[in-house]
Amino acid sequence: MNPNTSPGFLKRWGPWGLAALGVIALMYWALMPRPLVAEVGTVSTGRFEQAIDEDGQLRVKNRYVISAPMPAELVRPTLKVGDNIHAGDVVARLTPLAPNMIDDRNQRVLQQRVGRDDAARMAAAAQLQRLQTTLTQTELEAQRAQKLASENFIATAALDQALLAQRAAAQALAAGQAQLRAAEFTLAESQAALTQSHPSSLTPTNTLSLKSPVDGQVVKLHLSSSAPVLAGQALLEIGDVRDMEAVVDVLSSDARQMTTGATVLISAGVGTPPFSGHVTRIEPVAFTKVSALGIEEQRVNVIIDMDRLPDSTQRLGEGFRVDAHITLFEQDNALLVPSAALLREGTGWRVLVVQNGRAHAKNVTVKERNADVAWVQADEKGGVRAGDSVLLYPGTITDGQRVSTKTEAGK
User: Which contacts qualify for 21-30: CB closer than 8 Å, 24 or more apart?
Assistant: First the structure.
């Protein structure tokens, strides 16, 4: 009988052998690689959309600026922003400007001018009296010459000389009268310049009324009180807030991908349902704008026309902020893979599909992608299919590695 198989030997060394096997099994279990806990997503079939989300503001399509046609004094407006007006309604009134105030120095200068012009008027009046006397004298001489000529006491040439002298005196008197009137006008002008300024009376004869050219609302009031205005200065702006468009500035790189007519979904905030629109114009000139992070960006204004405004948007107005979802590309019945599942493989892409608790790498052809999902080409021979579970953010997980989902790890 073999002593190694005797009952005494097994009884003595059997427990030790079982304990050693247990320790080995425990060490193998402890050192065995654990399946990595990972988050998974699902491959699906649906509508793929590539879009840009930016914010903008509303503005009136047609704006009319009412400006002053001449320097004048604006009468305090009675209109407020948002008031409804009709074509032909008076929206502003202008009155003549009051004369400038006169300081002491200028007042003394003007007083001296008044004295000078009064002396000139008096001199013109004295000159007129002298010319009047000369005319009277030539008239008497002409009468005597005519009487003597009729009696043949003087020659005809002497009569003609007397008549011409009378005519010259009459013309000199007319010139003297004109000089007197000119002196009187000059004096009146100097006296008017000396008059102190005072507010103009608001009478219909010296008030100019400006009227609205269209129906609409007051969207901006440049002056809300009476004030002097210059020629061409804007007074108020008129527009129809029921006919508005949205202006959204986008990156110039995104603007190159847009086309006129692109579908847009516009949201005006909480309490207002979104409404649809379309791109009508992409401005060809970019401008520099500093982002919230302090980065200079080249941006382009995109003009969006609203297809139909719901009744709830009547509370919207000029300059209100809106969020625009501009669609660049869309495809129905597309095979969609979460963007977080894509891994770069050289010049291509691959994903890790979870099958039987292990990750299996599969190459995919990405046609388009956005921030959420990627549109991949369907491949019936070993490619991904709708319903497959793929690892999200796989990191260092390799092909064939054991994995467990977060749901399985929590059980």
Answer: none
Report DSSP letters for 265-286, one per residue: EEE-STTS--EEEEEEEEEEEE
Q: Is the alpha carbon torsion for 151, 154, 155, 156 positive or negative?
A: negative
> How far from 389 is each of 106, 339, 356, 407, CA to CA, in Å?
94, 13, 11, 13
Identify the helix (H) or strand (E) that includes residue 306.
Answer: strand 296-306
What pTM was computed for the model? 0.63
How far is 51 from 373, CA to CA, in rounded Å? 12
237 three-class SS: strand
DSSP 313: G
Helix (H), strand (E) at residue 124: helix 104-150
Torsion angle (degrees, nearest 10) of CA 316, 317, 319, 320: -10
d(CA 76, CA 235): 11
Alpha-carbon distances, residue 117 vs 123, 176, 188 (angstroms):
10, 16, 9
Q: What confidence tens digit (pLDDT) does each residue in 361-388 have?
A: 888 888 888 888 898 887 666 678 888 8
pLDDT (tens digit per residue) in 8-44: 655 666 676 677 777 676 666 555 555 567 788 888 9
| H or E stretch at 335 | strand 321-338
CA atoms within 13 A on the CB side of 364: 30
